[in-house]
Amino acid sequence: MSRTPLMAALLALAIAAPCTAAPAAKLDANDAKAREIFAKLISYKTSVGLGQVPAMVDYLAGQFRAAGFPQADIHVLPLGETASLVVRYRGDGSGGQPIALMAHMDVVTAKPEDWQRDPFTLIEENGYFYGRGTSDVKDGVATLTSTFLRLKSEGFVPKRDLIILFSGDEETEMATIRDLVNNHRDLIDAEYALNSDGGGGTLEENGKPRMYSMQTAEKTYASFELTTHNPGGHSSQPRADNAIYELADALEKLQAYRFPTMWNDTTLAAFKAVGAATPGEVGEAMRKFAANPKDEAAADVLAKVPYEVGKTRTTCIPTLLRGGHADNALPQSATATVNCRIFPGVAIDAVRKSLQDVVGQKVEVSVIGSPTASDASPLRPDVMAAVTQVVHARHPGVPIVPSQESGATDGLYLRAAGIPTYGVSGMFIKDSDSFAHGLNERIPVQGYYDGLDHWYGLVKALAGPRK
């Protein structure tokens, strides 16, 4: 990156200045409490196999009880080694059905010996909060909890019930969200849900806000096994047919195949907005695709960009291989795991049939587990208006762009159950600061406190009295 004269001057000042940190600004009572909660949550090792999610649930439930939420409205739901937590904030009923507010309490495994700092201690350093889960997504858990506590302390009575929904295993099995949807629907039923584990703002590397993405759709996560079979035999007596060769041929066919181009209101709106700010061939392709999604030349350009291709079609890619059983034996079977990210609205079995057609009838194609498909959520004017209001209060004029996530969150299960879900995180962050799932995970300190204002304003806008 080239340095402007101003940047050079600032760098010279930084080198000449003594290495002392500026004193932290004094936090008000609400922010101080939110920081205390955040630090406590980071200390829980809530990755798979450690069994600490229930302890974190007990801590959070205690916070809600101490704030005056009735025990009858605090639901701790154990499930295996993990648990979920549902808390209802009672409204006066004048505004319609409840709104659910979501986050997950578990985190991806972190090995302390690989980190520069203890991943389970919230460390504030150089304008960042470090720790496992700071961005994915214990900041959401802390922020939503703090928002409920603040509103309760102010005597706020929402015009509709608000429901906190904290799941316990989003990073692995997603069993807790499925349990809530299938077995406790009465506790979480809502007109729509707001997900802290999706959406959010992007900053340029100079700190200037670029845009805010509101996640309205997610692709379906589904994996399939492609398996070939063979009688096998002694390796000294090769056969013309071979399970590994046949699997390799099938994977070559899959490599050459592209699923049909698809689009929805979210992807077209996103390409229109992002394309206007994206230079070069890719930006031109975005603009053309938004204007005419049947423009295959534009779709071809986007298909070559790894972070854009998933927005234009279903994608399937081999991720695991296994085959044979001995060095000196012909393979009796060979299997490839193929992971697919399926475009919203496409049935899982339709993708299985497409894979079968591509690889041929000699290859067995089967779905792994019981994946769930979900459609895109409609672009609700009330949610769009409220998000725009709170984002523009901090960053006037920043584009609000609907987005489709190529990954997956708990939100897909709510959408599949008929509860529209919107990723509306309050965090603005640079691409270079995104370390979710990786080493030295961090978020901007200011971004965390701005997120508190974001959620407080969003709840007031959607569930407060009409002005």
Main sheet: strand order: 1-2-6-3-7-17
Question: How many discrete domains?
Answer: 2
- CATH topology call of the largest domain: Aminopeptidase
Low-confidence stretches: 1-23
- What is the CATH class name of the largest domain? Alpha Beta
Shape: globular
Radius of gyration in whole Å, from Cα? Answer: 25 Å
Largest sheet: 6 strands, mixed
CATH superfamily of the largest domain: Zn peptidases
Average pLDDT reading: 92
Helix content: 25-40%
Distance between the ends:
48 Å
- The tally of beta strands, per DSSP, is 19
Assembly classification: single chain
Please identify, by name, the CATH architecture of the largest domain.
Answer: 3-Layer(aba) Sandwich
Beta strand %: 15-25%
Secondary-structure-based class equals alpha/beta
Number of helices: 15
InterPro entries: ArgE/DapE_CS (IPR001261), Bact_exopeptidase_dim_dom (IPR036264), Pept_M20A (IPR047177), Peptidase_M20 (IPR002933), Peptidase_M20_dimer (IPR011650)
Protein name: Acetylornithine deacetylase/succinyl-diaminopimelate desuccinylase-like protein
Keywords: Hydrolase, Metal-binding, Protease, Signal, Zinc
Family: Belongs to the peptidase M20A family.
